[in-house]
Amino acid sequence: MQNTTIDEVRRRIDDIDREIVGLIGRRQAWVVEAGRLKTDTAAVRAPDRVEAVIERVRSLAADAAASPEVVESTYRAMIAAFIDLELHVHEARIEQ
């Protein structure tokens, strides 16, 4: 990485962002399916599951030489957004 330019760094970050967004889309499809299957809002919020996911991704971060704190913050924000989506899916299912 010593001879890279800022344009090259930005291009590589943009490439990674495309991959991340694709993975988020894949995760979202499963979150929507989970929202259809869960029986109540407590199951959607699932705080024990959230903490288990955080623990797991912090461990994965360490293995990937990523900051566990950055990974945790990112996942907490992502999980909160997905819980909102899942609640919407769950509520729409109930209203039908």
Structural shape? elongated
Tally of individual helices: 4
The first-to-last residue Cα distance is 55 Å
Q: Can you tell me the residue ranges where pLDDT is under 50 for at least 5 consecutive residues?
A: none
Helix/strand/pairing class, anyone? mainly alpha
How confident is the prediction overall: mean pLDDT? 94
Could you give the count of β-strands? Answer: 0
Largest sheet: none
Gyration radius, in Å: 17 Å
Approximately how much beta-strand content do the residues carry? under 5%
Give, in order, the helices and strands.
Answer: HHHH
Percent of residues in helical segments?
over 70%
Which key terms come to mind for this protein?
single chain; 96 residues; mainly alpha; 4 helices; 85% helix; elongated
Helix-strand layout with pairing:
Elements: H1 6-37, H2 41-45, H3 47-63, H4 68-95
Helix pairs in contact: 1-4, 3-4
Task: Please characterize this protein's 3D structure.
- With 96 residues, this protein is mainly alpha-helical.
- 85% of the residues lie in helices and 0% in strands.
- It is built from 4 helices and no strands.
- The protein is elongated, with a radius of gyration of 17 Å.
- The termini are far apart.
Briefly say what this structure is:
This protein has helices at residues 6-37, 41-45, 47-63, 68-95. It is mostly helical and 96 residues long.
